[in-house]
Predict the structure.
Amino acid sequence: MSRLLVVSNRLPVTVGAAQGEAIVTPSMGGLSTGLRGPFERSQGLWIGWPGDLSGLDDAGRATVMKELQALRTLPVELTADELRSYYEDFANGVLWPVFHYLLDRIPLHSGGWEMYRHVNAKFAAAVAAQYRPGDTIWVHDYQLLLLPGMLREQLPGARIGFFLHIPFPASEVFRMLPWREDVLRGMLGADLIGFHTPSYARNFASAVVRLLGHEPVVDELAVAGRKVRFRAFPMGIDTETFTAPSPPHAGEFQPRPGEHLLLGVDRLDYTKGIRRRLSAVERVLTRRPDLRGKLRMLQIAVPSRESVTAYQDYRRRVEEIVGAINGRCSSLTDSPPIHYMYRGFPQEQLISLYRAASVMLVTPTRDGMNLVAKEFAASRTDGDGVLVLSEFAGAAEEMPEALHINPFDVDGMAQAIEQAVDMAEGERRSRMAGLRARVLRFDVHRWAEDFLAALADAEIGAPLEPTP
Ligand code: GDG
C-alpha cells in the first residue's frame, strides 16, 4: 500500500506543559479522525506546523521532537515573522475574506504574499525530503495553495491530491485577487483537486478557463500535458462520536421546563453571521410577546485568530449586540434572553447541548461546509430538533430538510425561527429523519476513502482525451 503523506498548515497535535514537563497531545479534529484509517494502514506521515515551540528549553524540545516522531508527525517550524505574515496577514487577512466574498475586509495594503510563497516553499522542501517513490501526498486547504505546484516541479512523478476546506468563490470575485494566476497554477500542480460542493468545483473551472484559458472536459483539465481532475467530495463527520450516548456525568445540560432553547456554536468568525442571527432572535422576541421568558438563545463563540484585527473588531461588535439585546429584552422576572459564552467546551458537553436544543441556528454568510450542522443532526438520536441553515453554507446542498434561510435577511430569519419553534412534532421528526439518514451514511471515513480512491485512480502524467 502506498504511504500517505498528509500536509496541512497545522499538525493535529497540541504541545503543552504538565508538571513542568513538555507534552504532546494528539488533537482529534474531524480531519485527523477521517484520515486515521488510511494513515495508520499506510504507516503515513503528517507534515505541518506544530505550534509555537519557542518557549521550550533544550530538554523540553528534545522530548517534544521524540513524541512528534512517535506520532508520525513531522514539524515544519515557523518563525514569529513567518507566521504573522504568511498565516495572519496573507492566509487569514487576504485569502479568507476573498474566498468568503467579504471584499470589504481586505486590508488596503494587503501584505504577506512573498512570505506566503516562502512558507509554501518551506513546506515543499520538507515534503520533498520525506518523499519516497510510490507515496501519495494529500495537501489541505487555503494556507497551502501554492504547494501542489511547487511539489510538481520537484517531484514530477508524484501522486498529489489537494482539498480546499473553504468555498471557491465565483470567478468574478476570485479574479480580484492580484496573485490569481499563481494561485491557480499552484492548485493545478495536483492530480486531483477536491471541493466540498459541485458549485465550488464549477467556480474553479470557470476561473481556470477565464484566467488561464484551459478548457475543462467534464471534470478534467489538460495542464501542460497532464490530466488534472477536480470535483466535489462533501466532507462528513465522525458519526460514531456524535451518536454515542452522553456519559452520565458530562455536565449534562437541561433546558428549563417549557423553554425553547435556540443554540449557536461557532468559532468567533465574521463569516459565521452571528450578529444578524442575534438580531433575528430579538425580532422574534419583539413580535411574539407570548415567547418572552420562554425563549433562550445559547451562543457559544469559540475564540479564534485573536491576533487578527478584523477578529478583535468582530468580537467587540458581537459583544455590543449581545449587551444591547439583553438590555432591551430583559425583565426583573426573566433571565436575559441571550446567553453568550466566549470560550470552547469539551466535546461531550457540546453534544449534550446539541441534544438539549430545540432549534440549532447555523447562519453563516459563507461557509465551505459547516460541520456543526451535521454534528447537530447526528447527535439527535432522539429524532427531534429543528435545524435552521444558511443557504450559503456548503452543507445546505446536502441538507434539504433543514429550514433554509438567507442570512442577510433578518426578517426572513426571524420568520424561520418562529416556524421552527411552532413546528409540530410530526414535521420535526420527519425532517430530522431525512437529515440524519444522509449525515450518518456519508461520514468522514467515507469522505477520506472516496477522495483517496479517486486519487489512486489518477493517471499521473496522462494526456487528456481529445473532445469528441
Ligand atoms: C472549516 C471551514 C468546513 C466548535 N466549538 C467547539 C468545538 N467546535 C468544533 C465543531 C466542529 C468544528 O469545531 C467547526 O467546524 P465547522 O465546519 O463548523 O467550521 P470551521 O472551523 O470554520 O471549519 C468549514 C471545515 O473547515 C471542514 O472542512 O466545514 O466550512 O470553514 O467540528 O464541533 N469543539 C469543541 N468545543 C467547542 O466549544 N470540542
